[in-house]
Amino acid sequence: LFRLLYGALLVAVFVGAVWFGFRRSIVGRSVSVPDLTGKTPDEALRVALDAGLQIEEQEGRARNDDKIPRGKVLLQQPEPGSLAKPAQAIRIVLSLGPRELRVPDLTGLAPRAAALKLARESLQLGPVSWYRDPAAPAGIVDQDPEPDVPGARGEAVRVLMSRGPAEIRILMPDFVGKDAQAVK
Questions:
Q1: Residues 6+ apart with CB under 8 A from 105
Q2: Is the preceding peptide bond at 173 cis, omega within 30 degrees of 0?
Q3: Cα–Cα dist 179/65, whole Å
Q4: From the CB of residue 93, how many other CB atoms can be counted at a distance below 10 Å?
Q5: Which residues contact residue 56 at a Cβ distance below 8 angstroms, ignoring those fewer than 6 apart?
Q6: Rounded to the nearest 5°, which phi and psi values hold at 13?
Q7: Strand partners, 124
Q8: Phi and psi (nearest 5°) for 148?
Q9: Half-sphere exposure of 17 (CA within 13 A, CB side)
Q10: What SS3 string covers the chain?
Q11: What is the mean pLDDT of each run of 10 residues along the chain (184 residues)?
Q12: Residue-level pLDDT at 45
């Protein structure tokens, strides 16, 4: 009987401890995650600490954004308004600011290759003017705006292209039905 009562007491203590631990850790106190978007890391840390949370900056994930200035919080995980446990870390990603576009150097490229290179930079090929120059190789020789100048998204780059030396054209006579020896 003693062993039975002792075993029942141990089971009751175990069940009570599990219930108390579960209640405390899983169902216990939760805090609402504040919105850190648009704040500097120092401001975000202050707001998070006031809510009883920590922040963890994910430096490798920083990226450009047209709306959020450089050095401000762009994204956070968990999202604002969700519930978190006290002292939980909020992972933040900082903005690198608007992407700074630079006009690439198009010298020597054909118009199609230049258009592809400009499209990768969010720019576009504008009017293409050309001339023939026996000394210059075929390809783009000048552009406006100049290379490495800041550019705006969708801006057109005008180019001047050399088509190389003039083509030599020969007027071919009609030899159909003529004698092969006479044609030679």
A1: 143, 147, 148
A2: no
A3: 75
A4: 17
A5: 89, 90, 91, 92
A6: -65, -45
A7: 156
A8: 65, 20
A9: 6
A10: CHHHHHHHHHHHHHHHHHHHHHHHHCCCCCEECCCCCCCCHHHHHHHHHHCCCEEEECHHHCECCCCCCCCCEEEEECCCCCEECCCCEEEEEEECCCCCEECCCCCCCCHHHHHHHHHHCCCEEEEEEEECCCCCCCEEEEEECCCCCEECCCCEEEEEEECCCCCCCCCCCCCCCCCHHHHC
A11: 91 93 70 92 93 91 89 93 87 90 91 92 90 84 90 89 82 88 86
A12: 93
From residue 86, alpha-carbon distances to 10, 91, 103, 115 in Å are 32, 14, 49, 54
User: How many residues comprise the chain?
Assistant: 184
> 31-58 burial, b if ≥16 CB within 10 A, otherwise e?
eebbebbebeeeebbebbeebebebebe
Predicted pLDDT at 28:
60
